[in-house]
């Protein structure tokens, strides 16, 4: 498997939560892979994407679905249908709603300069995020609908989502079972970006580190299990 993604960063292995989700899944499923950090975009104009035996697969969820079948790696085979449905709802809530109200809001609107100092990107990337980035995300978020709300309303949406995730996780080690399943790749990829790669002044970071500490413990647990080389990568 050849995984196309961004270059590494000093805070997280990938600043793209969808990329960290997919790479974490590859590690969970023990599927050998190599990275291409050239930021080459897929035919859909996005990352991540993969090439497997000459076949191009785009979108992190489609990649996971394809890899699961191709390598016979069903991380959810022990779950009942209700748990699988809950996993689907968690994934789509995180990707299609929470992401916009937390990560994107925190980075590009709540504290752009603070974020750029934190992640220490090169000058060309810094220029992109300072100039084109907010305009592009504003257009996307307006079409999505969440960009039509005030910052206070967007923060409220993100808070409600994170509190719901915290309740669902509770005192469990993982979201759906006593062992990691596919949904954990997604939840880890996004929560890790909220915890390590957004401004520390952002509402989502403060909420995680002061109140929803079970989500922080969860991220640390997943990190220790699947990313023993985290410090080496981010150094």
Automatic annotation (TrEMBL):
Residues 18-103 form the Thioredoxin-like fold domain. GO terms for cellular component: cytoplasm. It comes from the Eukaryota. Residues 159-222 form the Metaxin glutathione S-transferase domain. Belongs to the FAX family. PANTHER family: FAILED AXON CONNECTIONS-RELATED, METAXIN RELATED. This is GST N-terminal domain-containing protein. It comes from Trichoplax adhaerens (Trichoplax reptans).
